[in-house]
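Posting this for the archive.
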Amino acid sequence: MDRTLLLNTTFEPISVLSWKKAITLVYLGKVEVLKEYDREIHGVSISVRQPAVIRLLTLVRSNHARVKFSRKNVFLRDDHTCQYCGEKFDPKHLTCDHLVPRSRGGVTEWTNIVTSCITCNLKKGDKLPDEVKMHPRKRPSRPNGFYLFMLNLGVKVPPEYWRDYMFMRN
């Protein structure tokens, strides 16, 4: 594992860094090390354990508080998986489905939109989930910004060392 979790002074996860960047921040005195991996990094005259979790000593504004609503982010939240049939698809074969259709007063927001394959979307049409016995596999919600950030990096399961500091909900 060569990634280090960076926390704000408030212990909120704000980024994932390379071990090189993490060690640089440690030696510049900008962070404190909260957890370390077992792996040692060897330099010419020094040897240190690789930081697993570091915390900034000065507060920075996080850009993860509000997640922009978009097709891409809905697909990321739902792991590119149709919430009706459970199959995973390439984005070009996916759509966003309104649980309560717009024709029936449904709104376009995180809690009313799920990822759907084209086949299931056509099958559901402008009906309510109860009317066609098609219920999403998980209740749609606004995702945590850092959670989407992690998915963009390709990290679905955080390393054990990070888990105490992760507040990921889905």
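The beta strands are 3-7, 13-18, 31-42, 47-56, 94-98, 113-117. Residues 27 and 65 are 29 Å apart (CA to CA).
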